TrEMBL record:
Gene3D superfamilies: HAD superfamily/HAD-like. It comes from Streptomyces carpinensis. NCBIfam families: HAD-SF-IA-v1, HAD-SF-IA-v3. This is HAD-IA family hydrolase. Keywords: Hydrolase. InterPro entries: HAD-like_sf (IPR036412), HAD-SF_hydro_IA (IPR006439), HAD_sf (IPR023214). It holds the Pfam family Hydrolase. It comes from the Bacteria. One of its GO terms (molecular function) is hydrolase activity.
Length: 236
């Protein structure tokens, strides 16, 4: 294996809880809700699927169905889809819906999984190229920089910058090309069998991790180091 491609959300980083997300935006706006009201609003936002990187919607309204299917193809579609879902929940000020969207794009809203730095650093020390391939509608590079992981990533291939989204093999092909790696020598690591599994159509090996809160998944990325170890080739 010459390179590893990683998904972003649910793989290397996890988003904050819906309650933390809402609380931060309310604080910034100088607004308050009682604890019970806040918890209820956060739960409603989660059920609506309004937090990118969080739970998927329990139900996508018909009027948002097309937006939802294509949300990661552009920044405009991404914002429209998620603020559309958010607006299904009544909040104290309508401006909070855009503020919530803006909050999720900040480094403070994300935390790396506990083993992410160790795994990325070790791959760099072994001379293995690393790419990030993400279905997303905004530039996640500042998140990596803020958390000290950008130095370990050789290329970012983001759906909104290419107008295509996983599982389209073209997105994985762009990452392989950027790393000058043959897809058959590349491992894709992600949390979505549907989206990240698309790399298999290109000839990449695929390894899945569970999309769990950061505190509940301390070491799921470490097996990647075993898969990329020189002796793994001899065992295969």
């Amino acid at each position: 294996m010459a390179a590893v491609l990683f998904d972003f959300s649910g793989t290397l980083f996890g988003i904050e809880s819906s309650e933390s997300w809402l609380r931060a935006v309310l604080d910034d706006a100088g607004l308050t809700l009682g604890e019970r009201e806040l918890a209820e609003a956060a739960r409603a936002l989660e059920e609506a699927g309004a937090l990118p990187g969080g739970a998927f919607p329990e139900r996508v309204p018909d009027e948002l169905a097309e937006l939802w299917e294509n949300r990661d193809r552009s920044a405009e579609l991404h914002r429209a889809a998620y603020t559309g879902l958010s607006r299904r929940v009544r909040l104290p000020d309508p401006a909070l819906h855009d503020a919530l969207y803006d909050r999720h794009r900040t480094p403070a809203a994300w935390a790396p999984y506990p083993d992410a730095a160790e795994v990325l650093r070790t791959l760099r020390e072994r001379g293995i190229a690393v790419g990030v391939v993400s279905n997303i509608g905004w530039d996640l590079r500042p998140v990596f920089r803020a958390h000290g992981l950008d130095a370990f990533v050789d290329t970012y291939v983001l759906s909104y910058e290419h107008g295509i989204q996983k599982p389209d093999p073209r997105l994985f092909a762009a990452a392989c090309a950027a790393l000058d790696a043959d897809p058959e020598d590349v491992l894709m690591v992600g949390d979505s069998r549907e989206a990240d599994g698309g790399a298999a159509a290109l000839g990449c090996a695929v390894h899945f991790v569970d999309h769990l809160p950061v505190a509940e998944r301390p070491d799921a990325l470490r097996p990647v180091l075993d898969l990329m170890a020189p002796e793994a080739e001899h065992r295969a």
